[in-house]
Amino acid sequence: MFPRALPSCRRQSGRMFISSMLSIKDFTSNLTRHARNTEEKRNMVLTILNSTATKREVRNYLKKYPLLKDVDIYSKGQMDRSSVSKRNKYSSMIDNLMLKHSTNNENNKIEDFHLNRPRSDLISKSKLEIKLTDTLRIAIVKIRQFRDIDPTALKGIAFTLYKLIKLGVSPIVLLDTDKEVQALNGESDAMVQKSIANYHQQALSFINIIEKCFHKYEDDNELSARAIRGLFEQKFDEDRFSMTLPELLLIPISQGIVPVVYPVGYMDKGSKNVFLSSEAVLQCLATDLKSLNDRHRLDHDKENLFTIEKYIFIDPLGGIPSLERYKSAHVYINLLQEYEDIVSELYIGFLKTGERDQHLKNLNLLQKLLQVTTDASGIVTTPQIAMLNQTDRFTNPIIYNVLTDRPTISSSLPVDLKKTPLLNTSIIRRGVPVEVYVDESSDKSGLCLDSLLKRGALDLEKLKNVIDLSFRKDLNMKKYLARVKNNVAAILIAGDYEGVIIVTWEVTDEEKPQKIAYLDKFAVSPKAQGSTGVADVLFKSLLSNFENELFWRSRSNNPVNKWYFERSKGSLTVTGTNWKCFYTGKNYPSLDRMKGYFNICERIQPSWNG
Question: Which of 49, 141, 153, 170 could bridge to 383 as Cys pair (CB 3.0-4.6 Å)?
């Protein structure tokens, strides 16, 4: 049994579908409650953003999840009905779906009466803040071994789901049943149906736990969840499962209700229900939801109905482990650059076989999902971390990633520094590929730029453009190339010139002059700065190729110096100049070496026009 009254049902392909219906009780004026929630939300968001995020991240967040800009239905003490009317496209969708699928004429009359009332009277108490953003921003949350999570942790996860909704995110929950899928392999249909029934009871228990967290008052439920059955079907002529009725998800989401998706699919062949693996369910959700939104964009001038923003895996094992980080989790994974290396590392043997296989499973699944929804992010963390309250002392990585679209710490921070924490959460994105060209000659004679240009590996126009945009200056390319010719130690290019690094060989003034690596240009396109992680990805690649010694200079008033300082082994002011010199690497520089750094910083002339 479902925990609340359900609407009429219809049959299709020999099985029962359950269509969600807007009940009369759902429609109630909640202006008083909204005022309280708006103040609570404003305080929470402003506190977090003021303490952790940059202005750019604030702008990006509000652009995607416009919570504070146009959402307050109170304006100078007067009610503003415009923010409510923005939901018209969802109202129309719900009207059409309900009229299409409902078979109860009496219910249709009741619905028609309520759905055609003024929108200001139809603010559902269960919508929370989800009505305040035009495009639904979906986060798919997969919880592994949910039966083993203690009630306290489940309540903490419920509060995180609640905060996600308050921040404009629409969660969809999947309770992982991969153990059942494996255990039932080859079992009888009767045993499978028994396991499905058992899962149903456990799912309802999960829903009951998370809803009870907020049942302070009988008429003031703060969080609602709904079991979603009958969502997947495999037809006779298809080789995969697909979503049957997307509205089974979209209607609860548009009401601010958390759908708990059953990993059960109906097969036309044999007319039976079967358990689905979490991979099959997530790939079905990602593929079919994207296809549905793509069709909507074609008919609505490229306007999104919804987007999948996050895949959140709550797993007892936590993030993908890294040897470099002493078996704690990778902070940020750029799949297009790091996937193969990480897979190889997981097979080295520092993990138990079962743990390794589960981490590989999480990584491979996220890679497939992010190939479908390329702009989304993956988050892998533990139940204990997922339930953290967002306070001055602790940071919930899920909430933080929604607000900033990045990890709680930078992935390019030196691992060995005491101030760099070891975490158990990984942020995973499809990311950008990084092309690395390094001078490997024994005499450090430099890269042949002409060769790179001839084979199309280097585009000087794009190179100049990203440098100009990043530095907000006009590079004299002819003058610059004349200076660095035969001295280029490395060129690193992220994506389609979203970012570039140029390293040169510079000669010291020591008794025995030596060529040392100097970070000459580090440029990131303004569009790629911040949450995309391009700067971190490039800098990590740079350090992996010049791990022994590297130095660079920066103007003393450069606001980026704090970022440089956190990633360097040390910094010094170059006496008599406006330069600061930063250095890093395994080799600690001697006093004479530092003097060599200073001389190089002093003698390199800028190559800008004007």
Answer: 153
